[in-house]
Amino acid sequence: MRADRTHAIDVTPALSNHWESCRGCWAAIMNRITMRSIPILMYHEVAVAARPDFVRFTVTVRQFAWQMRWLARMGFGAISMDQLVGARQDPSTLPRRPVVVTFDDGFAECGRAAPPILVEHGFTATFYLVAGLLGKPSEWLERELGFRLPLMNVEAIRALQSAGMHLGSHTVTHPRLAQISQTRIRDELVCSREILEQALACRIEHLAYPFGSHDETVLKLTRDAGYVTACTTIEARSCGEDLLALRRIPVYGTDSRLDFVSRLFTARPAAALVWDGIHTLRSHFRDGRS
Ligand SMILES: [Zn+2]
User: Fold this and answer.
1) 223 Cα–ligand 1 center, Å
2) From the CA of 171, how far away is ligand 1's center (Å)?
3) pTM of this prediction?
4) Residue 5 has pLDDT above 70, yes or no
5) CA of 289 to the centre of ligand 1 (A)
6) Which H/E stretch holds residue 196?
């Protein structure tokens, strides 16, 4: 029987598309496997003792000292945001176990307490500062929680720089960027850079979104304002995501030592992992019965 060539289905384009799609998937999978995920730790206050109404966001000096000592003993090396960016091009520049330590808000006591502990272990960290409130009280906390904490002044920030710490912007007034006008977002991003660069004579290229508040417009304006990285409060290890939407791992004063270790590797506190396990087992047996 003669084959009717006019009705033959040419599968070449379909196969080619399929192959391209497979190759794309495979490249994405390999990229995921070979790209190292890095924990970016997010701290707020480090103090000798926590205020009763700020316990969750205050890691005591004792807790912080244990956490940094544990990281050092486990072979972790703290890297700067610039090193994190550089590692996207050349991962061989990273220490064996990289970690990024960040502090939001620039609380005065944190600025005194944390650096000596970091320096003791050869660690660096990035402090995100509220540019319009240097040396003043944290006005946004008054609005949110009804109390204020003193913020670092320029002299204290210069001491941080001398201790090998890095600086970033946390905007001018600490607003929720995704909830204000584009003009105000632009001002918060551009002016905070200018204020900090003038006061501290250094380049400011890294940002942390106050309250983690961001959306596509904020991301675009952050890029336009010249920032290289920006941290969110999305809880996960950092692994190849947009540099202007970096994920972090929060460290809370209410966490146990086990929670700290659990969060470092999984971004989840220990109890959540146990509950996840119980839930999975229950689902497994329930599905098995039905
Ligand atoms: Zn903040």
Assistant:
1) 20
2) 9
3) 0.85
4) no
5) 49
6) helix 182-200
